[in-house]
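fyi for ur records
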Amino acid sequence: MDLMTEDCVFESTWPPPDGERVVGQAAMRAFWERFFAQSPAATIEVEELFACGDRATMRWRHRWEGGHVRGVDVYRLRDGRIAEKLSYVKG
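which gave:
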């Protein structure tokens, strides 16, 4: 969480079409704790990561027992920390 601003914004891939919107470090921590508690075998593998100015993009593969999905995160950075993380998934 040290890599995120206090007022960070996250839009997850679920539910469609826009995903859940999470605002603030405490809400973000609660989201990820719930996510990994529901799927303790889940992993996220980085396929590619690049940045330009205050923007970054990461292609990833999310694996869980019995399947996987690929997606991309689009980040906005502020003062070297993540201020916004917008997630999109294939499929």
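DSSP finds one helix and six strands in the chain. thats all i got for now
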